[in-house]
Amino acid sequence: MMYAFLRSLLGGCSLALLCFAAQAQRSTAKQPSRPNIILINMDDMGYGDIEPYGMTSIPTPNFNLVAKQGMRFTHFNAGQPICTASRAALLTGCYPNRVGMQGVLLPQDHRALNPQEATMALLLKKAGYKTAMLGKWHLGNQAPYLPLHYGFDSFFGLPYSNDIWPIDRDGFSVVQDPKDLRSTFPILTLLQGDTPVDTVKNIIDQGKLTTTYTEKAVAYIKANKKAPFFLYLAHAMPHVPLAVSDKFKGKSELGLFGDVIMELDWSLGEIMKTLEQEKLADNTILIVTSDNGPWLTFGDHAGSAGGFREGKQNTFEGGTRVPCIIRWPGVVEAGGISSELLTNIDLLPTLLAVTGAPQPTNKIDGLNFLPVLTGQTRKGPREVFYYYFDGNCLEAIRYKHWKLVLPHKAGSYALNVHGKNGVPSQKTEVNVPPALYDLAHDPSEAYDVQTLYPEIVQQIQKLAEQARQDLGDDLTKTQGKNVRPAARY
């Protein structure tokens, strides 16, 4: 019917022109104002952990459905391959080291995201959105450095990762060895706002987390359906220790890890079903992604990097490249695939462009991908991405389809047999030599081509020096000129 109308309007023009006109109509006239936003951030889900990105032996019908109804990004990178840093990037639109949030926070740390940084929640709240967070925070361990102080109206969840507790690998006994860092950790606490309301005492309690978060997400959607809302759901899984509810225990062909992925798939399905039932699906942007790649040292309790090199805590592609699917019916192309270089840093400015929310006053690093989402262009605005890790070490730079790896030390998963049944293996520290990889022809970063393309190496080296001057670099002992401090307490 739409094509018939367009044909009569355009007087029998070519099919290509008709398709262009239809695309233009889809990307402008149908774009709803002030859509709801649901951002689901998995913990340690690797690129290859769900069927739309190549997983086998685990059925993921709801991940498949959201990919069918939305756009799947194949070159999406987290800001750093580690929990705290990645989440800082997501919520501030900045390289984590710009805001002093590199690495991972532990209970004894007295560092937090500076409250002067404008978060996604704060900016959307200023635009009239109700805001809520469920799940893992990991940007500050105590009030006033918890979500309510960064723009969220409500929060229920954990202050940090689900493995930061004093419980041993069996999921029940307390660690007794004083040389084991876990023996220094407090009991894992569930928070409602700033207030502790429960504890996670054992692996059975861990198995309740996915269901609890899902039920609270569903309730929130139903209670806030009349006003625009932003819901940030940061699941604890599939980060170790893996735990699953009884309804999914033993359901997959891939052991406990598969059961956990199936429950996360169920969770996504419950949220999508609720949006349909409440007639909110067409006016809700649903984003599904992960904070970093899989923690491969845990073997069968870890996921898949999808053929990319290495995993979490490493700046090869397996550490930062993760799934990202964005669904926005009538605006984002259903079943679309984009190979543009997108990062979780870019989600904040993109959502600000969607909603008309105010811009941060501080410098950010994210770029606006709204024209890509609406189909106005297939070319994304990002050509460069800096891979920082291990404090503030600039370890690699991507420029278009090229990736220059700079010499550094790294923990490698490749030299040891991975762990089993929740018991990890050890990583081996290696000296990573300089190399140039062509990710278009060599996504696994196996073939160094720097001798063939010295001009590309020289060009990217200039970008590296720009990054060092701007953000600093521990490897070259360079102080960045435009970094901002974290909060200290």
TrEMBL record:
GO terms for molecular function: arylsulfatase activity. Keywords: Hydrolase, Signal. Residues 35-356 form the Sulfatase N-terminal domain. Residues 1-24 form the signal peptide. It holds the Pfam family Sulfatase_C. CDD domains: GALNS_like. Belongs to the sulfatase family. PANTHER family: ARYLSULFATASE FAMILY MEMBER, ENDO-4-O-SULFATASE. This is Arylsulfatase.
